[in-house]
Design brief:
Largest sheet: 5 strands, mixed
Helix content: 25-40%
Strand content: 15-25%
Shape: globular
Distance between the termini: 62 Å
Strand order of the largest sheet: 3-2-1-4-5
CATH topology: Nucleotidyltransferase, domain 5
CATH class: Alpha Beta
Structural class: alpha/beta
Number of strands: 5
CATH architecture: 2-Layer Sandwich
Radius of gyration: 16 Å
Order of helices and strands: EEEHEHEHH
Length: 145
């Protein structure tokens, strides 16, 4: 039986969550401190449950624009795509950290946020989603005539 994994990339930690094998319920699964540990954790999940796909939280501002952490999420998704043989999707993570803090349930904020991201994806019916357009390094010049 296969499962989905949710990831909440942070500045210091990467929050982790896993779905049940029916793909209905997301559960917080801890945090890792770097990408190598993330890859090891994903391999363990794949060995145990067969990984179906990975959902990476994509931070957006309330108006829909991308915040400064969005680039990190996009880079992590690309890095994972080069190393794992399953789909990797970016998923809007607006307000998930706030929700995770509000729940006050057992576990850390990062892993609860990862579970909220994954649960949102599962509740949406596990859609195939396109990545947003890449960031431009510099905004285009404006012709001031």
């Amino acid at each position: 039986m296969s499962c989905w994994v949710g990831i909440d990339p942070g500045e210091r930690r990467i929050g982790l969550a896993r779905s049940d094998t029916l793909g209905m319920l997301a559960t917080p699964r801890g945090v890792v401190g770097n990408q190598d540990l993330l890859l090891s954790w994903l391999q363990e999940i794949d060995d145990e449950h067969q990984l179906k796909g990975i959902i990476v939280g994509l931070p957006r501002n309330m108006r829909g624009s991308y915040g400064p952490m969005a680039r990190r999420s996009m880079q992590l998704a690309d890095w994972l795509r080069e190393r794992v043989g399953v789909p990797v999707y970016l998923w809007d993570e607006r307000l998930t950290t706030r929700q995770a803090r509000a729940t006050g349930s057992k576990g850390g904020i990062d892993e609860r946020a990862a579970a909220i991201i994954l649960q949102s994806y599962l509740d949406a019916g596990t859609p195939t989603v396109e990545d947003p357009a890449p960031f431009e390094e510099e905004p285009p010049a404006i012709d001031a005539k």
